[in-house]
Design goal:
By secondary structure, the protein is α/β, with parallel strands linked by helices. Helix content is about 30%, strand content about 20%. Helix 8 packs parallel to helix 11 and helix 13 packs across helix 14.
């Protein structure tokens, strides 16, 4: 089967058309690019608003350690008949939650977005998608070490999360036979130290903030011993799943303050998916990160039944901007095995995203709508009646970086491989 990269190269055998990048400074652009820079989708479908319940503010969980729930049988709010069906799902794709996060669910609403995010669904067992949808294995240079983009390396340093999002694109890591993650990052440290082009290191997994404070401190200390590593990123949903992780740990606060320096910052790549996750406790947790020198941004996927509503998305973006966590990326969901019930078609996603960007201040409208494809981070820049306009915001191969291209519009497509490139003169 021909890959998307091969199709693209066949169509674009002529010189590349390049759109303006985020770093351009007013250079000339083609008329098509100028149109794209101002493009708006003409028709925005009405999407049913989600339930407006606020749920618990989490104060109960703040006064004690959160209690983890690992078995469907422990969920008292789910009927016995439904619980038996969901146990089969959890046998394949592991379930994990905690009482703080479960308290945010409005159990009277069967379509509650927090419930959709954390509670298994039978449709996850549909035969659909791949476990490694972006072929991360191909960019793994050592166990637990991924190097796809020149400046940035990923260290998969933990195989556990505070809870498991049902739409997780790395759910393969939580399966018994998987050994991609390692707590021993010595190979990663060696690789990074030998590659001076690497300025950014992302700690991920799993969730790094589930590790002990001692282990986090050791990793940060080792990375800070490499002069060319300027930014350390921590990818975490713990600020949503358990805000007390940082609030109650003075040692972790001191560690972050020590290693987030004026010329070498630590970034929290927070993962809030819905405005109801932004409880008072979560906001207090974010404030603690900021007070300890950590720069905070938010990235999340577009998820059916959770945030595929422009009102919900814009509300979350505005609230994030208020608390000092600017939106960074909105990701198109990867076609990962088990994720069919959470997928949003690309064109619909673009319409939702653009409508959301009509609301709020400029600080709430900074996100880019992208796909983390095997070939790179592809920004979805525009849609019209005939075409979808895209650009490589990041690329696996330097020749593709900044590359602008056009594909035929397909309202059913949810991933780049389903699109057909067209020559810009057509």
């Amino acid at each position: 089967m021909i890959s998307f990269q091969e199709k693209l190269n066949l169509v674009y055998s002529a010189p590349l058309i390049r759109g303006r990048t985020a770093h351009s400074s007013g250079g000339q652009t083609s008329s098509k690019e100028v149109i794209l820079s101002e493009q708006r989708v003409v028709v925005f479908p009405r999407v049913r608003p989600t339930n407006g319940q606020n749920g618990s503010n989490g104060e109960k969980a703040y006064k004690r350690k959160v209690k983890y729930i690992r078995k469907i049988e422990q969920l008292e709010n789910i009927p016995d008949s439904e619980r038996e069906k969901l146990k089969k799902v959890a046998e394949k794709y592991v379930f994990r939650a905690n009482d703080y996060y479960l308290d945010l669910i409005n159990w009277e609403d069967p379509k509650d977005p927090i419930k959709q995010l954390i509670i298994p669904r039978e449709e996850e067992l549909n035969d659909w998608g791949k476990l490694d949808a972006s072929n991360e294995q191909a960019i793994t240079v050592a166990r637990g070490v991924q190097h796809k983009y020149t400046d940035t390396v990923l260290l998969l340093c933990n195989e556990v999360c505070g809870a498991y999002c049902r739409y997780c694109f790395r759910k393969r890591l939580f399966m018994d036979e998987n050994d991609e993650v390692t707590n021993d990052i010595s190979a990663g440290i060696k690789y990074i130290s030998e590659h001076p082009e690497i300025t950014n290191v992302l700690l991920t997994g799993g969730d790094p903030l589930l590790m002990s404070t001692r282990r986090i401190t050791e990793i940060l200390e080792e990375l800070r011993g490499i002069p060319h590593v300027k930014i350390i990123r921590i990818g975490s949903k713990m600020p949503a799943f358990d805000p007390t992780r940082l609030l109650k740990d003075k040692d972790l606060q001191a560690t972050l303050q020590k290693y987030s320096r004026p010329h070498q910052r630590i970034y929290l790549m927070a993962h809030f998916d819905h405005p109801r996750e932004l409880t008072d406790l979560a906001v207090e947790g974010i404030d603690t990160f900021i007070k300890n020198g950590v720069i905070c941004v938010n990235q999340c996927p577009l998820i059916k039944g959770i945030n595929d509503d422009p009102k919900v998305l814009s509300e979350m973006y505005s609230k994030l901007s208020y608390i000092g966590v600017p939106p960074y990326y909105l990701f198109q969901g990867r076609p990962t095995e088990g994720n069919e019930p959470y997928e949003v078609p690309m064109v619909k996603g673009w319409e939702i995203f653009q409508e959301a960007l009509r609301r709020g201040s400029g600080l709430a409208r900074r996100a880019k709508y992208c796909m983390s494809h095997e070939t790179g981070k592809v920004e979805i820049m525009g849609v019209d009646e005939e075409n979808i306009y895209l650009r490589y915001h990041q690329a696996k191969y330097m020749k593709d970086l900044g590359r602008f291209f056009i594909c035929k519009r397909d309202d059913e497509a949810y991933w780049l491989d389903q699109l057909e490139p067209v020559h810009p003169t057509h």
